[in-house]
């Protein structure tokens, strides 16, 4: 570490020069603050879902009431999962549209993404009502509490994502997403993809892995 | 350097001296464990002794390290302090680090810890080893007392007719290993007899193992150590280690049901009161045990202490009160005055006659008069003994009846 | 708290001079001085100061609770508090001290110092920063409001299930605890994201990671710990909330629930929590010791990497809180070994600090005394920690007063001594006047005495069998003497804290007759000492270019090959002058962080008392997010024009401009 004796009186001048030179690189990492912030937030979300998924795994065998095996309608949920996955594709198309400056096309794809997400949520609500009718209330068993909490928590995330997408469309219509703010769409996209990936994990853990 | 006001310098000296004196006094005091019934530092069973064998070297290493760090800090502070006459433009040698040294003092503590780790693992293996010929006891915590079930016939079931259910006090033969299984009927408690072994949590829905063994006959006290609600502080345990022959006699007596009605008319009236008011929650074998197995009592935990052989115990109410004298010096309904001399049931322990002259009637009556006043409980929530608003006559009758439960 | 409001501030922002006319409700506030400015500020320094002030307010509450506990235990069968009240008081004491005192003091230093130490104008998301503070404050007030609304939580700060269920704790205390900590958790999480992005993205030119001051490093590690630990606690608290409020079965043993689930989730959060509380103090000490030894920190990379190692290893040791819970001998052995070896990086730190002092020219100013106090007192806590890592010994010591002694040596002897050192060290930087040295030294010695009198006897009490969390003990157990000593110690400790508060005001009055304190009162090493004291709103003008560790020191001194130090410039030559800050773009104040944060406790009260009120809270939250998103940037285009050399390095990225993602992200964590 020992550096040789250096003369430093010109440093203040160097500071000023360097600051000018620095203008091009906005951040140290090259990733914008908001995008990095979103990545960190999603990393944190992993742990939140991790806690809930662990809880579900611990409680997936109920002592009473319907078992997962008895009530799950795998073809139905597979279809709605497919719908949600497709929404990631439309999201990618939306981001690519805004990057090319095609606002109208971006709005269409975002609208499609929101619609697919809403279809998934509608499917989830339908599924829940069927389960409740078959005797699986929220308080029925340890399995039911864990199941509704995990999937419901995910559903809330999707819903918030839909609200964000709709807001994007409205903002875009009002011209509030100019070119240099295109990254906003990408960041909402990050969130949306994350919610999709989490669903893949939940779908595998809850519906597919045999008890 | 500006000179400090004298008072600050005096304060520094006083403070430093007092801290040194305090540390010395604490070290000396940790060797004085007589009259401290809950101390962990005078082990009296194989398990606690093996823990002590680990404690002594580990604590010594820790003490040496601390003295080293403290000594170094003080020495360096003294040796390298800025002198009053020093040249303000003179600076110490600018050392940024010495990699070899740092690697050295990364490895050195790792080696010391590796040594401790070996001892730890060996002790853990030792503590978890199953002992042959051990007695199986299930210890169940509930707010705020302990229930003990003995698998006397060793069939793996604690509730057979050949098995014992008792409360508050655990009787064990000295020199023989006891395999305890802890569990709970409501919240998490922790079963801890520091003289015999470390603690083990009593978790509802789980069965956790713990070995106990006393070298010699004696009284071993404990205290619940997992916070369990309102009266956590008043949830104590007492283990009575007795000779093998006494233990056998105790088991034989415990297996007996309450047989005939008491002859004394007061006690007989007391039995009627008991059946009318107490039998909803408490059990006496031969009176309401069959009925209680069918209907769960209205308590959160589902049980109240079994009273079949109440007078064979030296304490009651979660081991906070002596059932026999001595009591508090002023004779008032106090918890145990002298903790070490727990109320001794004497001959009653093994089924002999209850010495009614030494029964701590004052506290027992006060308890029956208004239990929640002596020990904080939530009887309105089904947790703990309620105030039954008994008349003085009923209390006298009840005590007379309870005194027959040997 | 003495909050200086007389600092010159940057250019008036917003307003009409740039031709932008804001509309109606979405006008950004413009006041930058005066009482109102504190409510709308987004300045990291003001927010840092408010964190500190709020933490000291809660310290007085938590400290009073501690004194009540000590008075109750003064003698056997104390009657000051009922069993019920005692359980609430000790629960709230632990909760307050952990979540509302130690964590926010760490946040206070991190907020104030990180941008200054890395050469930034502000944090990455100034409005989110303000939101974090207000959410923390309202969460803390919300938890404490339970005292007036039916009593505090009574399940211990660890809130083990099933004792935390409605059957066993039917009052609302635990609901307040649970929802309040979810709110402060949101605050911590947004704060963590903010500070991590700040450190990773906003360093001055030349400020590489391995040139950062150690405080910034340690704060960075602890923010990462927060980022990953808080959501685990939140998930557990959501389960508890659903159990208590909506009859779910997560901790209902009769439906097959396993109470150890809560213990695992709580301690997966809880142990990293311990390290994230102590690491900022380690950082402060690592910056203070070299300053007063006048030589560099010994082994900068070792200090940094041991901090990172502690951060990583902190995730693999949680079950040492559960050695006696029945997790099985294999788990006990594993966690016993992992816990033991976390002592290695901690030991490295202690030895490096000692080596930093070795051969130095030690000046025993108050910050130095507190730092040496940390080195020695924390060592006791660290060593008793090693003793607990030995699982068989822990089976005797856990849940006794020995543990109480241990973690107070860590959190008070460690974290709090470090914070006290930090207060004395950075007071002139934040407020422009020095704290009185004589009172400071008296403060130190009184605190050292009080601290040891209070907590050292608890080691022996614990080893001799005194259980934790008991509201009473009987005579005959031999607990009387040391409990009396501890109670006397607690009052001594309280008087030392009072002396600190007295010092703040005394020094402020005295400072009027003293020459203004310069930028660099301690002959400091890191670049925060370049800027005038108190720090101007714009921090640096211009942003410095960093060339090495302790950059500011080497602007003053040169070092020869054989380690000799030669002064090459006076402080006055290299320190920055206070400028008018013209041309520096700073984020404008905003109402919305305050409004958004205010909606959270309203919603939480609603969840407890009436769902209609919850709806009101939700409307406030949603409205605030809308307002936040729609809020005009005060300076819509300037940030992207070249109107000053520092505009881009300073503007905190796009966050200064209204950004819907930031706002929605916070709803996320509410959900």
Automatic annotation (TrEMBL), chain A:
InterPro entries: Cyt_c/ubiquinol_Oxase_su3, Cyt_c_oxidase-like_su3, Cyt_c_oxidase_su3-like_sf, Cyt_c_oxidase_su3_a-hlx. GO terms for cellular component: plasma membrane. GO terms for molecular function: cytochrome-c oxidase activity. PROSITE patterns: COX3 (PS50253). It is a multi-pass membrane protein. The chain crosses the membrane at residues 39-59, 79-96, 108-126, 146-173, 185-209. Keywords: Cell membrane, Membrane, Transmembrane, Transmembrane helix. This is Unannotated protein. It comes from freshwater metagenome. The lineage of its organism: unclassified sequences, metagenomes, ecological metagenomes.
UniProtKB/TrEMBL annotation, chain B:
GO terms for cellular component: membrane. Its main location: membrane. GO terms for molecular function: copper ion binding; cytochrome-c oxidase activity; heme binding; oxidoreductase activity. Its EC number is 7.1.1.9. Residues 265-406 form the Cytochrome c domain. GO terms for biological process: ATP synthesis coupled electron transport. It is a multi-pass membrane protein. CDD domains: CuRO_CcO_Caa3_II (cd04213). Residues 32-131 form the Cytochrome oxidase subunit II transmembrane region profile domain. The chain crosses the membrane at residues 7-28, 54-78, 99-125. PROSITE patterns: COX2, COX2_CUA, COX2_TM, CYTC. It is found in: Membrane. Residues 132-253 form the Cytochrome oxidase subunit II copper A binding domain. Keywords: Copper, Electron transport, Heme, Iron, Membrane, Metal-binding, Respiratory chain, Translocase, Transmembrane, Transmembrane helix, Transport. Belongs to the cytochrome c oxidase subunit 2 family. This is cytochrome-c oxidase. It comes from freshwater metagenome.
Automatic annotation (TrEMBL), chain C:
Residues 1-26, 635-655 are annotated as: Disordered. The keyword Cell membrane applies. GO terms for biological process: electron transport coupled proton transport; oxidative phosphorylation; respiratory electron transport chain. It is a multi-pass membrane protein. GO terms for molecular function: cytochrome-c oxidase activity; heme binding; metal ion binding. Pfam families: COX1, Cyt_c_ox_IV. It catalyses: 4 Fe(II)-[cytochrome c] + O2 + 8 H(+)(in) = 4 Fe(III)-[cytochrome c] + 2 H2O + 4 H(+)(out). Keywords: Cell membrane, Copper, Electron transport, Heme, Iron, Membrane, Metal-binding, Respiratory chain, Translocase, Transmembrane, Transmembrane helix, Transport. Residues 32-547 form the Cytochrome oxidase subunit I profile domain. Its EC number is 7.1.1.9. PROSITE patterns: COX1 (PS50855), COX1_CUB (PS00077). Residues 635-651 have a biased composition (Basic and acidic residues). InterPro entries: Cyt_c_oxase-like_su1_dom (IPR023616), Cyt_c_oxase-like_su1_sf (IPR036927), Cyt_C_Oxase_1 (IPR000883), Cyt_c_Oxase_su1_BS (IPR023615), Cyt_c_oxidase_su1_bac (IPR014241), Cyt_c_oxidase_su4_actinobac (IPR021050). GO terms for cellular component: plasma membrane. The chain crosses the membrane at residues 49-69, 89-110, 131-150, 176-202, 214-234, 265-285, 297-318, 330-348, 368-387, 407-427, 439-461, 481-506, 602-629. It is found in: Cell membrane. Pathway: Energy metabolism; oxidative phosphorylation. It is an enzyme of class 7 (translocase). NCBIfam families: CtaD_CoxA. This is cytochrome-c oxidase.
């Amino acid at each position: 570490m020992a550096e040789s004796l250096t003369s430093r009186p010109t440093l203040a001048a160097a500071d000023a020069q360097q600051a000018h030179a620095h203008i091009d690189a906005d951040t140290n990492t090259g990733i914008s603050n908001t995008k990095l912030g979103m990545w960190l937030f999603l990393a944190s979300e992993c742990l939140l879902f991790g806690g809930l998924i662990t809880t579900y795994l611990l409680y997936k065998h109920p002592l009473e009431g319907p078992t997962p095996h008895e009530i799950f309608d795998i073809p139905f949920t597979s279809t709605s999962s497919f719908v949600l996955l497709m929404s990631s594709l439309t999201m990618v198309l939306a981001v690519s549209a805004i990057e090319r400056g095609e606002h109208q096309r971006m709005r269409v794809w975002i609208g499609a993404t929101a619609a697919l997400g809403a279809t998934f949520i509608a499917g989830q609500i339908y599924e829940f009502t069927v389960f409740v009718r078959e005797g699986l209330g929220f308080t029925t068993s340890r399995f039911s509490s864990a199941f509704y909490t995990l999937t419901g928590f995910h559903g809330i995330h999707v819903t918030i994502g839909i609200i964000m997408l709709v807001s994007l469309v409205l903002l875009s219509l009002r011209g509030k997403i100019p070119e240099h703010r295109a990254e906003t769409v990408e960041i909402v996209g990050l969130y949306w993809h994350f919610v999709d990936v989490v669903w893949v994990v939940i779908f595998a853990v809850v519906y597919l892995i045999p008890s | 350097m500006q000179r400090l006001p004298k008072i600050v310098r005096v304060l520094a000296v006083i403070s430093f001296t007092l801290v040194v004196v305090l540390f010395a006094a604490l070290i000396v005091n940790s060797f004085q464990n007589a009259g401290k019934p809950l101390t962990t530092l005078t082990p009296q069973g194989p398990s606690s002794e093996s823990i002590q064998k680990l404690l002594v070297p580990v604590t010594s290493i820790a003490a040496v390290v601390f003295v080293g760090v403290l000594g170094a800090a003080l020495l360096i502070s003294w040796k390298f302090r800025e002198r009053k006459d020093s040249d303000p433009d003179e600076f110490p040698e600018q050392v940024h680090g010495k990699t070899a040294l740092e690697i050295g003092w990364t490895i050195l503590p790792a080696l010391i810890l590796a040594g401790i780790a070996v001892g730890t693992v060996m002790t853990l293996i030792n503590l978890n080893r199953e002992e042959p010929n051990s007695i199986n006891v299930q210890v169940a915590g509930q707010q705020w007392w302990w229930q003990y079930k003995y698998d006397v016939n060793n069939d793996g079931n604690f509730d057979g007719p050949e098995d014992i259910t008792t409360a508050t006090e655990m009787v064990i033969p000295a020199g023989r290993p006891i395999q305890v299984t802890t569990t709970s009927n409501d919240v998490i408690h922790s079963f801890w007899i520091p003289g015999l072994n470390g603690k083990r949590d009593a978790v509802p829905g789980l069965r956790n193992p713990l070995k106990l063994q006393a070298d010699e006959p004696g009284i071993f006290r404990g205290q619940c150590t997992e916070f369990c609600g309102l009266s956590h502080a008043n949830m104590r345990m007492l283990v009575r280690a007795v000779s093998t022959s006494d233990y056998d006699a105790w088991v034989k007596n415990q297996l007996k049901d309450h047989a005939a009605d008491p002859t004394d008319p007061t006690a007989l009236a007391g039995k009627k009161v008991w059946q009318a008011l107490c039998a909803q929650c408490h059990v006496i074998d031969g009176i309401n045990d069959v009925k209680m197995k069918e209907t769960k009592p209205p308590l959160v935990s589902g049980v109240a202490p079994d009273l079949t052989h109440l007078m064979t115990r030296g304490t009651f109410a979660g081991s906070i009160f002596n059932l026999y004298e001595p009591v508090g010096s002023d004779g008032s309904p106090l918890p145990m005055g002298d903790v070490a001399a727990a109320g001794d049931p004497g001959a009653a322990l093994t089924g002999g006659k209850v010495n009614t002259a030494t029964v701590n009637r004052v506290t027992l009556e006060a308890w029956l008069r208004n239990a929640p006043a002596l020990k904080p409980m939530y009887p309105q929530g089904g947790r703990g003994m309620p105030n039954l608003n008994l008349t003085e006559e009923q209390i006298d009758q009840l005590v007379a009846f309870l005194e027959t439960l040997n | 708290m003495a909050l200086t409001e007389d600092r010159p501030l940057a250019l008036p922002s917003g307003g009409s001079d740039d031709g932008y006319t804001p509309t109606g409700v979405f006008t950004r506030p413009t006041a930058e001085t005066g009482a109102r400015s504190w409510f709308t500020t987004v300045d990291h320094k003001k927010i840092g100061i408010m964190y500190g002030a709020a933490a000291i307010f809660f310290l007085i509450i938590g400290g009073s609770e501690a004194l009540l506990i000590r008075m109750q235990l003064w003698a056997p069968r104390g009657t000051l508090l009922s069993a019920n009240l005692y359980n609430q008081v000790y629960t709230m004491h632990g909760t307050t001290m952990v979540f509302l005192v130690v964590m926010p003091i760490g946040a206070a230093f991190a907020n104030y110092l990180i941008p200054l130490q890395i050469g930034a104008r502000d944090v990455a998301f100034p409005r989110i920063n303000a939101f974090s503070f207000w959410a923390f404050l309202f969460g803390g007030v919300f938890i404490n409001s339970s005292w007036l609304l039916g009593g505090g939580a009574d399940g211990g700060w660890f809130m083990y299930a099933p004792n935390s269920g409605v059957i066993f704790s039917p009052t609302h205390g635990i609901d307040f605890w649970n929802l309040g900590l979810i709110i402060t958790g949101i605050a911590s999480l947004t704060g963590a994201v903010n500070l991590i992005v700040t450190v990773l993205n906003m360093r001055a030119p030349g400020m590489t990671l391995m040139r950062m001051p150690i405080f910034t490093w340690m704060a960075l590690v602890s923010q990462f710990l927060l980022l990953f630990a808080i959501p685990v606690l939140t998930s557990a608290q959501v389960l508890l909330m659903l159990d208590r409020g909506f009859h779910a079965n997560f901790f209902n043993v009769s439906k097959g629930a396993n109470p150890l689930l809560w213990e695992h989730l709580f301690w997966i959060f809880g142990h990293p929590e311990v390290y994230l509380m102590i690491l900022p103090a380690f950082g402060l000490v690592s910056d203070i010791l070299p300053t007063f030894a006048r030589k560099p920190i010994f082994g900068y990379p070792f200090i940094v990497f041991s901090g990172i190692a502690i951060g990583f290893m902190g995730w693999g040791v949680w079950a040492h809180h559960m050695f006696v819970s029945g997790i099985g001998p294999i788990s006990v052995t594993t966690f016993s070994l992992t816990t033991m070896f976390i002592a290695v990086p901690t030991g490295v730190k202690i030895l490096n600090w000692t080596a930093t002092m070795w051969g130095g020219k030690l000046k025993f100013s108050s910050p130095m005394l507190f730092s040496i106090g940390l080195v020695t007192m924390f060592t006791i806590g660290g060593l008793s920690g090693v003793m607990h890592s030995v699982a068989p010994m822990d089976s005797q010591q856990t849940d006794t007063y020995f543990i109480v002694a241990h973690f107070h040596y860590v959190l008070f002897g460690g974290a709090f001594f470090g914070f006290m050192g930090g207060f004395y060290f950075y007071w002139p930087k934040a407020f422009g006047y020095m704290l009185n040295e004589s009172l400071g030294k008296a403060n130190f010695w009184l605190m050292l005495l009080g601290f040891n009198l209070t907590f050292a006897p608890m080691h022996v009490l614990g080893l001799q069998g005194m259980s934790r969390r008991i509201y009473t003990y009987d005579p005959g157990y031999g607990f009387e003497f040391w409990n009396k000593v501890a109670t006397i110690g607690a009052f001594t400790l309280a008087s030392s804290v009072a002396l600190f508060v007295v010092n703040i005001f005394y020094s402020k009055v005295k400072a009027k007759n003293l020459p203004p304190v310069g930028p660099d009162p301690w002959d400091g090493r890191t670049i925060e000492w370049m800027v005038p004291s108190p720090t101007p709103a714009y921090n640096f003008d211009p942003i410095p270019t960093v060339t090495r560790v302790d950059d500011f020191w080497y602007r003053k001194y040169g070092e020869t090959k054989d380690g000799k130090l030669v002064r090459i410039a006076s402080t006055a030559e290299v320190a920055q002058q206070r400028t008018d800050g013209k041309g520096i773009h700073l984020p404008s104040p905003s109402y919305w962080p305050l409004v958004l944060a205010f909606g959270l406790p309203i919603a939480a009260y609603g969840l407890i008392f009436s769902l209609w009120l919850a709806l009101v809270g939700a409307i406030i939250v949603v409205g605030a997010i809308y307002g936040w998103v729609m809020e005009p940037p005060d300076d819509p285009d300037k940030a992207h024009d070249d109107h000053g050399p520092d505009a881009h390095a300073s503007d905190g990225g796009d966050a200064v401009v209204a950004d819907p993602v930031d706002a929605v992200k916070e709803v996320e964590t509410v959900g």
